């Protein structure tokens, strides 16, 4: 079997897939630029916190009960629970709860393509397997950075979110399962071919349709990220035991490039490895809503703060943004990806955090319902030209006696918005929410463990801080 692997590897030398696998096997924390390692740690902190609070939501609660019932060896932490379970099931639970809300980060490539929600897939997969293997924090940071490099490049080859969703009906973010598989394969110390086997096995378990965007509650949409995380762990563990798969799921006939590549983007798969680190494209969220909603919410809250108009005086709210993002969030049944509801709720509440996004009272509030009916969403030709997959927006609010407008090119936390998010910013996002649940002491421990992850000898010390809820 090993000889067959070696022969297969020889036949792939010179391919983009083999370049990707060779790069993966050589990665290590010590060669990551400082800003890259720091960004990966921020992603880990933010995503583990997302999984912890998301465990309280319907998708998180149900998936938690499911993995507890399935049992298995107590290898990895289930966030928000005293239970441990097998690494694949922990990845499933934490990946699902990590996207049960819309507070998890998203991602954009350096050439402006959206790639979905990599953190909710790659971090739960890598963390679960790292706990199973008793890996160091350095190992985890390196694995997360690698997972982003792979997943982002795969989706970049396809042209990003818009063509995959519009032309193929596929949720391209599910392809971050390949990044999760590479991250887990690296944690297991696999060779080049087994990295490729892991990726092939993962993608066969994880490609998702676009239909969950139309569901009533944020459940199967969250399951997509959980299943992709599960697939990444399972693919790597199977490859480690000798389970074989396609030598080149990327470039083979019927593979990813052959099936979904956008013409002219085939070379993105291995482009600038070791120079363009995908974690630097993480877009952190500071509102609890689908990402196309962030610029409109920032704009309406800014206009309200600046001009001080009464909500009763609002006659119309016109929002212009790129056409594809507009189609994703236009009047959805799912509140957290419904632009009209989130904008109205933010205006009434004066903010849009986790509590406001999931408020049952705001769903039926008469003022929210009135303002929601006044929102007019327009897919704008100018935005389509300058940022077709961007997240900018221009908002005009008409009030008695006139109108006011504000344009937000990139929402706070976006890779192209300066200054970049800091540890203080992310602490501000999470401190109040987590302290309510675990107390100040445990929050401080968790924050410090993530900020100094390179000094952690066993990553079980980190996830264990977000086990059971202990409200204070």
From TrEMBL:
InterPro entries: MmgE/PrpD_sf, MmgE/PrpD_sf_1, MmgE/PrpD_sf_2, MmgE_PrpD, MmgE_PrpD_C, MmgE_PrpD_N. It comes from the Bacteria. It holds the Pfam family MmgE_PrpD_C. Residues 19-261 form the MmgE/PrpD N-terminal domain. Gene3D superfamilies: 2-methylcitrate dehydratase PrpD (3.30.1330.120). GO terms for molecular function: lyase activity. Residues 287-442 form the MmgE/PrpD C-terminal domain. Belongs to the PrpD family. This is MmgE/PrpD family protein. It comes from Rhodococcus wratislaviensis NBRC 100605.
């Amino acid at each position: 079997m090993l000889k067959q692997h070696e022969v297969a590897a020889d036949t792939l030398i010179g391919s983009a897939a083999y370049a990707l696998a060779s790069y993966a096997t050589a990665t290590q924390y010590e060669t990551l630029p400082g800003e890259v390692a720091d960004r990966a740690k921020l992603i880990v902190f933010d995503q583990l916190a997302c999984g912890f609070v998301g465990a309280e939501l319907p998708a998180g609660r149900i998936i938690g009960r499911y993995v507890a019932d399935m049992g298995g060896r107590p290898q990895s932490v289930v966030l928000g629970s005293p239970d441990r379970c097998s690494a694949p099931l922990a990845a499933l639970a934490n990946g699902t709860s990590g996207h049960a809300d819309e507070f998890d980060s998203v991602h954009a490539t350096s050439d402006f393509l959206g790639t979905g929600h990599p953190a909710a897939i790659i971090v739960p997969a890598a963390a679960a397997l790292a706990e199973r293997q008793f890996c160091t924090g350095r190992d985890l940071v390196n694995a997360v950075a690698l997972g982003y490099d792979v997943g982002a490049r795969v989706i970049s080859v396809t042209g990003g979110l818009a063509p995959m969703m519009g032309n193929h009906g596929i949720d391209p973010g599910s392809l971050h399962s390949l990044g999760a598989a590479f991250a887990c394969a690296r944690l297991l110390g696999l060779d080049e071919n087994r990295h490729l086997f892991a990726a092939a096995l993962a993608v066969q378990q994880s490609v998702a349709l676009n239909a969950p965007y139309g569901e009533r509650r944020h459940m199967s949409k969250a399951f997509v990220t959980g299943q992709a995380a599960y697939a990444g762990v399972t693919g790597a563990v199977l490859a480690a035991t000798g389970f074989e798969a396609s030598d080149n799921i990327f470039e083979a006939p019927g593979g990813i490039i052959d099936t979904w590549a956008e013409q002219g983007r085939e070379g993105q798969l291995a482009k600038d490895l070791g120079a363009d680190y995908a974690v630097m494209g993480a877009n952190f969220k500071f509102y609890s809503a689908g990402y196309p909603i962030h610029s409109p919410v920032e704009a309406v809250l800014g206009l309200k703060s600046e001009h001080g108009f009464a909500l009763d005086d609002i006659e119309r709210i016109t929002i212009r943004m790129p056409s594809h993002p507009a189609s994703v969030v236009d009047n959805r049944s799912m509140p957290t990806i419904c632009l009209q509801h989130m904008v109205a709720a933010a205006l009434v509440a004066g903010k849009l955090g986790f509590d406001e996004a999931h408020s049952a009272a705001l769903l039926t509030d008469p003022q929210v319902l009135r303002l929601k009916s006044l929102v007019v969403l327009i897919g704008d030709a100018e935005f389509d030209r300058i940022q077709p997959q961007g997240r900018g927006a221009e908002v005009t609010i008409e009030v008695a006696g006139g109108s006011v407008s504000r344009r937000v090119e990139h929402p706070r936390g976006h890779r192209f918005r300066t200054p970049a998010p800091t540890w203080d910013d992310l602490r501000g996002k999470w401190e109040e929410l987590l302290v309510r649940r675990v107390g100040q002491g445990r929050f401080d421990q968790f924050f410090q463990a993530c900020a100094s992850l390179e000094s952690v000898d066993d990553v079980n010390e980190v996830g264990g801080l977000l086990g059971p809820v202990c409200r204070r």
